């Protein structure tokens, strides 16, 4: 294994190049930037938008936070249950039905960018949009790998246990056991296509397999 330090800008360019290299002309590419909330995976996903568009591919941004289950389901075992956060908060079927499957083989490209407003605990009532062929979905969120979601390219922002604890707000410390279980059961550092050490987002490092 080789670890290559990069600037944030160089990292975004590297990932964008990998995305552009895989994007099919006649279909779609479903890309996920996976990372704990403390890693702010949405920031990297946002940084990729203009780069991927500059490479000639339409882009649709989607956040897993807009595909959470209703509060009655998320908080069935309490508001701070780590196991529920790990497996029950994300509406996997809704995300797959409304976003991922329409961009898969035989899909139409017609997707729903948001489904549920967790803050108001109600449907967003968003309008459907269409991503042209050759387009790229940039999805961000935590705990996305190991769920069987149909993704074509995955990026994992890896935080050490110490960095994760330091950067997680006090009122979210209860989520830490979920991330421990995620690492132990889903092995995101091994299953992701691109792994980035993200303890200091000002100095990310790309993890590359040894030749």
TrEMBL record:
Keywords on record: Kinase, Transferase
GO molecular function, one term: kinase activity
Gene3D superfamilies according to UniProt: P-loop containing nucleotide triphosphate hydrolases
InterPro entries in the record: P-loop_NTPase
Name of this chain's protein: Uridine kinase
Organism: Yinghuangia soli
Taxon lineage: Bacteria, Bacillati, Actinomycetota, Actinomycetes, Kitasatosporales
